[in-house]
Amino acid sequence: MPTSPFKTEAILERPLTLAAAQLGPIARDATRAAVVARLVALLEQAAARGCRLVVFPEMALTTFFPRWHIDDEDEVTAFFETDMPNAAVAPLFDSAARLGIGFYLGYCEQVGSGEGRRRYNTAILVDAAGNIAGKYRKVHVPGNPVYDPALKLQHLEPWYFADGDLGFPVFDCLGARIGLLICNDRRWPEPWRVLALQGAELVLLGYNSPAQLPDNPRQNALRTEHHQLPMRAAAYQNGLWVVATAKAGHEEGCDMMGGSCVIAPSGEVVAISSTLGDELLVYTADLALTVEYKKFFDFAQYRRPVAYRLISERQGVGEPLDRAAWQKSLET
Ligand code: ING
What we know:
- There is one protein chain.
- This protein is of the alpha/beta class.
- The protein is built from 10 helices and 14 strands.
- Strand 1 (15-22), helix 1 (32-48) and strand 2 form a beta-alpha-beta unit.
- The longest helix has 17 residues, at 32-48.
- The termini are far apart.
- It binds D-[(amino)carbonyl]phenylalanine.
């Protein structure tokens, strides 16, 4: 197990040296071997810098192909993993086990075949021995199920991926209680609270986020704000450390935002990437910092689930509840 050379660990109660392993563009025709070699290089850098956990992006093995409507079924199938681990990613798993480093890996998962086939946008948590400790399938699958010629930017995840069916699980791994999210999930408040209600101290996520939204140009100047804001709020409101890792750069004609970062339970961004390429962002987090904020927002003492029923019972906007309906809701 590599020990960190940093003196700061001596004064931290529960230090965990971790890294966001940001990736630059992955070409549409990139081979798995070439991509995995990049991941292994980042993992070896992480070991040299005393890391015990590395967070790779969403869909870290392939280009972000949901930017296209691809009719060639063979090409689509080639973007998916039917087994995990498998021969292509074995160098990554073997290196991680040899170096004693756990990692988050986002990839495209295919389960079954023929009529029963299901495809998910998936992330796994692998422990320091190279074993899969947890799996999550993206719940918030954004964009459109079919090509929409009216849109300047196609984002066809629903065409390729089913909604995640594993809920929002947490996993005890590397001395921490860890939750996993994927990209668009970070923009919704509910996943964070569900993870925190299970005791999550650290949430890992990868993302592929366009730097500009040509169909929503007024948001373009706010893309970094809209990326950080929900995660900073979630970290503070739930007493969590957050590691968010980008697939960044000019990928197949699309500028993907960087901004990989580590966010403390205070809501402060304590580390942020400075390139749009493969970059290792290392930080030593003190997991004990979550305690103060989990006490400040003592769920058991202050939360009132009976008052929040609409959040889990209603999907879209509905009619206001009148006084009688509220009284009834609060009683039952
Ligand atoms: N990407 C986007 C995100 O939340 C998105 C979702 C982008 C939706 C562009 C529509 C248009 O950053 C992913 N991968 O969720």
